[in-house]
Amino acid sequence: MRHTISISVMNEFGVLSRIAGLFSGRGFNIESLCVAETIDPRVSRMTIVTSGDDRIIEQITKQLNKLVNVIKVHDLTGEEYLERELALIKVNCNADNRAEVLSIVDIFRAKVVDVSPRSYTIEVTGDEEKIAAITELLRPFGIKEIVRTGRIAMARSPKAK
Amino acid sequence: MKKTGAEIFIESLFKEGVDTIFGYPGGAVLPIYDALYKSRLRHILVRHEQGAVHMADGYARATGRPGVVLVTSGPGATNTVTGLATAYMDSIPVVAFTGQVPTELIGNDAFQEADIVGITRPCTKHNYLVKDIRDLARVIKEAFYIATTGRPGPVLVDLPKDVLNDSTEFIYPDKVHIPSYQPTYKGHPGQIRKAVNQILASKRPIIYAGGGVISSNAANELRQFAKKLGIHVTTTLMGLGAFPGTDPLFLGMLGMHGTYGANMAVTNTDCLIAIGARFDDRVTGKIDEFAPYAKIIHIDIDPTSISKNVVVDIPIVGDVRGVLKDMMKLLTAAKVREFKKGLKEWHGDIDGWMKTHSLSAAQDMTRKIRPQYVIERLYRLTKGDAIITTEVGQNQMWAAQFFKFKEPRRLLTSGGLGTMGYGFPAAIGAQIACPDKTVIDIAGDGSIQMNIQELATAVEYKLPVKVAILNNRFLGMVRQWQEFFYDKRYSYTCIGNKPDFVKIAEAYGGVGLRAKKPDEVDPVIKEALKVKDRPVFMDFVVDAAEDVYPMVPAGQPLSKMLLV
Ligand SMILES: Cc1ncc(C[n+]2csc(CCOP(=O)(O)OP(=O)(O)O)c2C)c(N)n1
Fold first, then answer.
1. Which of B403, B352, B345 shows the shortest CA–CA distance to B374?
2. Complex ipTM, two decimals?
3. Are residues A70 and A14 in the same domain?
4. CB contact under 8 A, A17 and B308
5. Is B446 helix (H, G, I), strand (E, B) or coil?
6. Are residues A6 and A61 in the same domain?
7. The whole model's pTM is what?
8. What is the dihedral of CA A9, A12, A17, A20, to 10 degrees?
9. Which residues 119-148 on chain B approach chain A with CB closer than 8 angstroms?
10. B393: phi > 0 → left, psi -120 to 50 → alpha, else beta; which?
11. Which end of chain B is more exposed for a tag (fewer CB within 10 A), N or C?
């Protein structure tokens, strides 16, 4: 099963390679990994999407916790959390189909961020399904290039009762 | 007053109470060597950096205090890798300092540059590159702290040459503050209670103890606990000495070359109490059939060890010593009495197993020397009062089977990594730590050649380390596998009868002795034990056909032992 794990780490030299090395060295797989500084510049937040049965996920979280630079490991799976990815999609278009492309952009609340005579570059954020859906709809026009971030995730605040 | 990085390095080691370091110089660490020239810190000059790390490791295992290594950049640093990996697998506190090229050259493929922090990331508990002299004292403090706390392990600190030459005010921190590193020491009371209840409800309990008991200094607690409840103890290779090898409750080692009794007891137990052990594949055999009838209690300081290989019923994360103490508090006399009454039948079963297929070092005095006999004689003639190190292979397993370790820190052996070439330098490290003890490396003729250059170190420092070479002219353990599983196709395992180990020892300035017949064994050992000022090689020309029994073939359950 897929798990989204959020990790706070000391923002130190080599920490990314420690984490990547842990995954490769122990044969755990990484589907995506995102990392950036938090509001406290000494701390970075990583979101890793990985997969495995319960035993493996338990090992992954314990092994991560064991790294000296890791402050906190939180497996978000099974909880309420927000997740987002961002994609930039460069799609072919011409006078005849511009309107059609724009309506797809509209439906997905995406944005056109660059325009040329023969292409649009579209920025879209959302969860994985949304990105997959817009990609599918744009595919017939001819996607010239696509770049995606990995997933970032955050636990939802508890709702007032 | 300002101090240079090199001076801060030495001062910091004093603050940590370090009395000895093991090292080898080179360009990048010249500033430290220059500072050492004026310092009273004892530096042992080795002959190979791998030797330095094993010596520091042997020093650490013999004393419980961290071993310290100093080497230069590039090849000096890469030569430490096997030593670090050895210490890492066995959770030994070693702090290694490596020189590095000046910071502005890092990444430029400078002369003798190696990314040692990158290389050793997976085989150290943690490592550092110090880029700013103002971090130096703090990093050294943290390095010692991390190496010696929680589950111990090696830590490496990489020191660029400019940082060593730079200077700053020296302030050694009193405390370490690493928010992301907080080992758990105290076991959870609820889990402890559950474990005690589980034990008291059992009829066929067994303790399976590992190296964690030794690193936690919990041998006394383990003995009290086992004695109080009348529960038999088997240990891993790393756990030998954690429980007295001469105690009637001791079953010997379990696992691939474990005793028949220990393996049968583990196979039939209804309550396996795993203490500071990690269910290594050499211990469990086929994992699904390991302790199939047991509820498993697992006490370990490292949460990742728990339920890694075997799913356990009652995990307790914490320091073994404290947890055992807490468990004993819950044992009332009445409960213990009641519990012990129920163990009669089980003890009968165990006695039966221990009597069948027991290990034998019997020697027919008219035939070739049996290696087992040599170890048995070493045990008798030292009265067991020795620190034993081993190499890897048959020599290691026979040492584990035939020498009885009465105390912890008496057997120093590379269990996890299985590093040939470990035993001799480790013995040197142990001898330096314990100058008055008899220290013996039980070696194979293959392994001893992997760090034989350290003879020069032992001679230089007048260390009376003994090396008992069980000379079978083969890479014996590999030959044994070829005999059992590859139809006796002895592919590249015969290493012949060269070199002449007696001459080698003598060439370095040590003593060389040889026994070719069984009746020469005792005189050689006695002669060796008399030598107090230099190393001794004892070349025992043994029967090459001997195999280590019992043996559980890899991947088989423990009950499927090959017996003699
Ligand atoms: C550095 C290293 N290389 C290879 C091995 C694989 N290996 C395990 S046991 C063994 C044979 C050891 O031979 P020897 O030292 O003569 O000991 P014996 O088994 O004969 O007692 C070998 C090659 C190892 N453990 N370590």
1. B403
2. 0.88
3. yes
4. no
5. coil
6. yes
7. 0.95
8. 0
9. 121-122, 125-126, 129, 131, 146
10. left
11. N
